[in-house]
């Protein structure tokens, strides 16, 4: 049976820290450590920050789900602005922002987005097979 951590945070930058803390705790409890934990938490920060900055729905909540299912760890971040799917931009080296999805692409094994009936979801998948930063016997 998969292990899952699911929660909502208000669409505000100050709640990115809450997301980071909750995911650190869940990953530690599942025996995931070091490099993979840092990658997952970094990508969660990027995706939640994107949702906070770009979701045009007032008083929205951002959903975060982390699922450990066999050889896969999947991070999902959702918001109610389902009509605006993210695109991987060509960032100018002098720009301050615009690199979040490039990080997602570089640090995850696969990523994408989907429209559900009331939300859009951006997800990143990490394959655990053969990784040294996952404890043996982790759920």
Layout: helices, strands, pairs:
Layout: E1 3-10, H1 16-29, H2 34-54, E2 61-69, E3 72-79, H3 100-107, E4 110-115, E5 120-127
Antiparallel strand pairs: 1-2, 2-3, 3-5, 4-5
Helix pairs in contact: 1-2, 2-3
How would you describe this structure to a colleague?
- With 139 residues, the chain is of the alpha+beta class.
- It has one domain (3-127): 2-Layer Sandwich (Heat Shock Protein 90), CATH 3.30.565.
- It is built from 3 helices and 5 strands, in the order βααββαββ.
- The chain has helices at 16-29, 34-54, 100-107, and strands spanning 3-10, 61-69, 72-79, 110-115, 120-127.
- Strands 1-2-3-5-4 form a 5-stranded antiparallel β-sheet, with helices on one face.
- A hairpin with a 4-residue loop joins β4 (110-115) and β5.
- α2 runs antiparallel to α3.
- The longest helix is centred in the first third of the chain and has 21 residues, at 34-54.
- The N and C termini lie close together (8 Å).
- The model has no long low-confidence stretch (mean pLDDT 87).
Helical content stands at 25-40%
The CATH superfamily appears as: Histidine kinase-like ATPase, C-terminal domain
Domain count, please report it: 1
Could you say which overall geometry the principal axes of the C-alpha atoms support?
globular
Mean pLDDT: 87
* Number of strand elements: 5
Give the SSE order as H and E letters.
Answer: EHHEEHEE
- What topology, given as strand order, has the largest sheet? 1-2-3-5-4
